[in-house]
Amino acid sequence: MQASRVHELSPEEQAIYRRLDPSRLPQHVAIIMDGNGRWAGKRSLKRFLGHQQGAESVQFVVETASRINLPWLTLYAFSLENNLRRPKTEVNFLMRLLGAYLSNNVKRMNDNNVRIRYIGRTDELPHEVRERMEWAAEQTQQNTGTTLTLALNYGARSELVDAFRGLCQEVQRKELALEHITEQDIQRHLYTAHMPDPDLLIRTSGEMRISNFLLWQIAYTEIFVTDRLWPDFRGVHMLEAIENYQSRNRRYGGLSDDLQSLPGNELVGR
Ligand code: FPP
């Protein structure tokens, strides 16, 4: 049976897709979706319409992820700071939009073998939204393709606070000795304990900021910033970012290939 999708692969997407090296696809792509307000402002529209259009982009990107068999896609949908600092009317609108997005797209997620999960202090979100979120997670939990993780009421520093609280409890209960704490112990207390770190982080709308997103997890992540505003972002743009990622040489703190072959390289990079 043909999967129901919001779009067919455009010739441009097909061309990039053919150029990608299937053996070097990222396992985890994370996206800071930014620019909804500016998109609306440029068209003299209310900010709400920018968010609405941004929700359309989400589904395009999710389906492209599923098409290329990307195991993990994480989207920064609503930060703790958004919750605290945006007008109540905008926050309420974003919550309704999320609920509507889930209601309207669960069938498509199932058709595309996408499983949905969440990270963040989601227990602080309105009750009706949490119910919808739980419903969507249950409806898609059997899917084995892309795991779509929505970061909601998320802040990386609060994630670390929550992780350290968990870790300290283990120490208090004498399940773990202070001197034996490792990076892995911190990692297993993060909201993302079950996921690999992102290989690629994309940010739209040209801002060169991390905005309190996945601070621990992006230690060695490749970053791709595009000036395109989120509501204009489509699957083809994610494929462009992945193509750019494949052109890079990931070093994890080591030497680049060209330096490795130089004599005396043991002195470089210390
Ligand atoms: C930034 O735009 C975007 C957000 C507040 C978060 C992303 C939200 C969506 C894409 C809406 C729907 C999401 C889902 C999952 C259905 P901004 O308002 O900060 O833009 P600006 O910087 O141009 O003002």
From TrEMBL:
Binds 2 magnesium ions per subunit. One of its GO terms (biological process) is polyprenol biosynthetic process. One of its GO terms (molecular function) is ditrans,polycis-polyprenyl diphosphate synthase [(2E,6E)-farnesyl diphosphate specific] activity. Keywords: Magnesium, Metal-binding, Transferase. The active site is at D34, N82. Pfam families: Prenyltransf. Its EC number is 2.5.1.-. It is an enzyme of class 2 (transferase). Its cofactor is Mg(2+). HAMAP family: ISPT. Catalyzes the condensation of isopentenyl diphosphate (IPP) with allylic pyrophosphates generating different type of terpenoids. Homodimer. Belongs to the UPP synthase family. This is Isoprenyl transferase.
